[in-house]
Specification:
heterodimer, A: alpha+beta, 7-stranded mixed sheet, 4-stranded antiparallel sheet
């Protein structure tokens, strides 16, 4: 395997063996799993020239041999999907998809695969740096360090005009939305925007990623989007997370975006927006299952099966009397274990609830004291208005 | 004001204020004291010029952090390659270690005035700083940094106690007084050099990134950079005024900050001496805390490690290692009896003097680059001012370098 750092700066040699100039950069095309070499940039007789890969016979450390003695003196023009290894990739950040983290390319590994020279890996270890700093005659004694397989890497190419928006970064889809959110937060501004635009084609993933992002980062990207784009992401998010994001928008913009939301979500969001953000009313999700006390366990389970509410809001099934006042709550696991013929009034104990204006600390205390992952929110009439789940509480507590 | 109000006010302050005031460290206070003791108010006009330069330089660093979301070492590596970023990293580390030692010496000197033995003051300060940086969250650390600038208010009070001739002070501030004697020029250069140091730009840019500031925050951060720079240099001016009103009038020369504090007592009272010592303690603590962080930022950026004082140690082992090493070595060297502090400071000054033109050149080149900064690159007039500032500051720094090396 060759190291890019040792190929760069080497001699450009003609077929007959005469030195023609100095190798400055290598061009590869990104549309294959291991990007093939498509050209060489060299300094020849005081001019920057581009040589097509067809003219290259052999590549070695310190030397690229041409198949010809004649070179076409033409300047470099990028073709689609092409990047320059030194200018665009070396020393830049890239995504280590397997490790779900950002790395910096200290050196790049090249090898002959399937009949032609290709990029096969990225050196992210200290040796890659050492090799580039020590005097050249010692450099090839520095063995390859921790090499990442190129198949596990996504380079950032947003700054390269001909590649922009054309590479869908297919490997990113393997990452969990929370991992993607961590990458967005750790990356530079342009790189973060690139990750977000890469997931733009997958609306579900985009919405999940947005739910995981910290407020400051959400706001930053939302500012550059149209109202329609925001509404489309919001409509795929859970209502309480969507409301968090709506609160980040300016008052005027919030109204415009609300108008563009689907009817049911708009009403829910508006209801939530009416309350203070850090109270039970603001935190709660309006998705829950509440059945009459007269229902049987099997009827309640049927309701759960039909429900589209997110799993965490179904950890407890609530029970109400005919005046819609909450009188019981039963954990989903207990419900599953109960005799299907039992009536809920007999199996569901009186649940812990909090009022709409309960503050974050009170909710957290109730959850801790009674070991709850979910708590019902009731109005003055003891009617269930929504549920607060532990993930929402933890998120806010961690931010404090 | 209620406690909550004060805290929310402090929350607005951050990297800009911290970076500018960390420049008023033990070495800075020693320099300002000797400026005042030797030349009275003659060099006050220069503080105005230095303030403008500081604002220009710090604004570029803050803007780059906000627009690119990357630290200065990151950008140098991406745009100029690994050798330059390694060079910058190595020199910053050497300079930071040297300055770090001098801060611990400053801490020992300040507490020495209160008869606290060195073997107590230095280890306690080192442990406290280490705990804050490694165990504290970023928010807490930043608030404490900001809080550490409060002792600087001691200098205006000390200056007032020294009963300066305010008319002469005002005149010296606006009317340039230029001498050509080598000693005058050297002090001029040293003052510029201690006010604008490379670690301040590196810290500011990385801290802005770590704080997660976005384009919305640009103007607020600019206000902070400007007010932080002005505050830091007004404090510096008061040090010159305090020493100028007393030591200069009585022809007492000083070389160190603690000497200045002691020398102040006969003319302005024990209270002025105590205030001077409090200011020195706060300044040394602030810089001793900011310097290791800067070193860790730069190393993490250059080598592409995870970084940040907002992460837990396990997530950022390199950060913890670098911070620990700088604090431990800095404190340990300060504890060695008869350590040649003065020669050490001279060496540090050489490294800083050599590094400043390079750092400033990169700051200027990067912040005017369309490729890096897009529409937030330097405006045309600002760019000219910035270029002149960088050229002038670099020239001064090189003069200092030559003079120091030739003795």
């Amino acid at each position: 395997m060759l190291h890019l750092s040792l190929v760069l700066g080497g001699d450009l040699v003609g077929r007959a063996g005469g030195r023609l100039g100095r190798v400055d950069d290598l061009v590869v095309r990104l549309d294959e799993p291991y990007p093939p070499l498509t050209g060489v940039l060299a300094r020849v007789a005081g001019r920057d020239v581009f040589l097509d890969a067809d003219a290259v016979a052999e590549i070695a450390h310190d030397r690229i041999t041409l198949a010809t003695d004649r070179i076409d003196l033409r300047p470099f023009e990028r073709r689609a999907q092409e990047v320059l290894l030194r200018k665009d990739v070396l020393d830049h950040q890239l995504i280590d998809v397997d490790g779900a983290r950002l790395r910096r390319a200290n050196d790049i590994g090249l090898a002959r695969v399937d009949g032609w020279w290709r990029v096969v890996g990225v050196d992210v270890g200290a040796r890659g740096i050492v090799r580039r700093v020590v005097p050249r005659r010692y450099a090839d004694r520095v063995a390859a360090g921790s090499l990442l397989d190129w198949a596990e890497v996504e380079p950032f190419t947003g700054h390269v005009p001909t590649v922009r928006l054309r590479t869908p970064h297919p490997r990113l889809a393997r990452l969990h939305p929370a991992e993607l959110a961590d990458l967005v937060e750790a990356a530079g501004r342009a790189e973060a925007a690139e990750i977000l635009s890469a997931v733009h084609g997958d609306p579900e993933l985009e919405a999940d990623l947005f739910e995981e992002l910290e407020t400051a980062h959400r706001r930053e990207f939302v500012d550059e989007w149209s109202d329609g784009e925001i509404a489309s992401v919001l409509s795929r998010m859970e209502t309480d997370d969507a409301v968090d994001l709506l609160l980040d928008l300016g008052e005027d913009r919030r109204r415009d975006v609300l108008e563009l939301l689907p009817e049911t979500q708009r009403r829910r969001s508006e209801a939530l927006l009416g309350y203070g953000a850090a109270t039970a009313g603001g935190l709660m999700s309006p998705d829950f299952v509440c059945v009459y006390a007269q229902a049987t366990v099997s009827e309640a389970l049927a309701r759960v099966r039909r429900s589209h509410a997110p799993a965490e809001t179904l950890e407890m099934i609530f029970v109400m009397n005919t005046h819609r006042r909450v009188q019981g709550g039963i954990a989903l696991a207990d419900l599953v274990r109960a005799d299907p013929q039992d009536v809920l009034a007999d199996v569901a104990p009186i649940p812990r609830t909090v009022p709409l204006d309960a503050e974050l600390d009170d909710i957290a205390r109730v959850m801790t004291d009674y070991d709850l992952t979910i708590v019902g929110v009731v109005d003055d009439e003891q009617r269930l208005q929504g549920v607060v789940t532990v993930d929402d509480v933890l998120e806010l507590l961690l931010r404090q | 004001m209620t406690r909550r109000r004060v805290l929310s006010l402090l929350a607005l302050l951050g990297p800009g204020l911290i970076a500018a005031n960390a420049g008023n460290d033990a070495g800075g206070i020693a320099t300002y004291s000797s400026v005042g003791a030797r030349y009275g108010y003659d060099l006050l006009w220069m503080m105005v010029v230095i303030t403008v330069s500081l604002i220009v330089v710090q604004e570029m660093a803050a803007r780059m952090g906000i627009v690119t979301g990357k630290g200065l070492a990151d950008l140098i590596r991406e745009n100029y390659g690994v050798r330059w970023s390694l060079f910058a990293t190595a020199s910053v580390l050497v300079a930071n270690l040297g300055i770090c030692i001098s801060e611990f010496v400053g801490i020992a000197a300040a507490l020495g005035l209160a008869h606290v033995p060195v073997y107590v003051s230095v280890p306690v300060a080192a442990v406290a700083i280490w705990l804050l940086l490694v165990r504290g969250t970023y928010k807490i650390a930043e608030r404490i940094f900001v809080g550490m600038t409060i002792p600087f208010f001691a200098y205006p009070v000390a200056a007032i106690l020294a009963h300066p001739d305010w008319g002469a002070v005002a005149k010296a501030t606006v009317a340039p007084h230029i001498q050509t004697s080598p000693a005058y020029v050297l002090l001029f250069v040293a003052t510029a050099g201690t006010t604008i140091t490379p670690f301040m730009q590196l810290y500011l840019q990385s801290a802005v990134v770590e704080r997660g500031l976005g384009a919305d925050d640009l103007n607020r951060e600019r206000v902070e950079v400007v007010s932080g720079s002005i505050f830091a240099n007004v404090v510096a001016s008061f040090i010159i005024i305090a020493t100028g009103a007393t030591l200069f009038v009585h022809h007492r020369a000083v070389d160190t900050a603690s000497q200045a504090a002691q020398a102040l007592a006969p003319f302005a009272g024990r209270f002025a001496e105590a205030l001077f010592a409090v200011g020195l303690l706060g300044a040394s603590l602030l810089a001793a805390a900011v310097l290791p962080v800067t070193g860790a930022y730069v190393i993490s950026e250059t080598f592409g490690f995870e970084k940040g004082i907002s992460r837990s140690p396990r997530e950022a082992p390199v950060f913890v290692t670098v911070v620990t090493a700088l604090v431990v070595v800095g404190a340990a060297v300060a504890l060695i009896p008869h350590v040649p502090v003065f020669r050490l400071l001279v060496g540090v000054q050489v490294v800083n003097g050599a590094l400043l033109p390079i750092t400033l050149f990169f700051v200027w080149r990067l912040s005017r680059s369309r490729e890096v900064m897009g529409r937030y690159r330097n405006g045309r007039i600002f760019d000219v001012v910035a270029a002149l500032t960088v050229a002038a500051t670099s020239a001064l720094s090189l003069v200092l370098l030559v003079v120091t090396v030739r003795g």
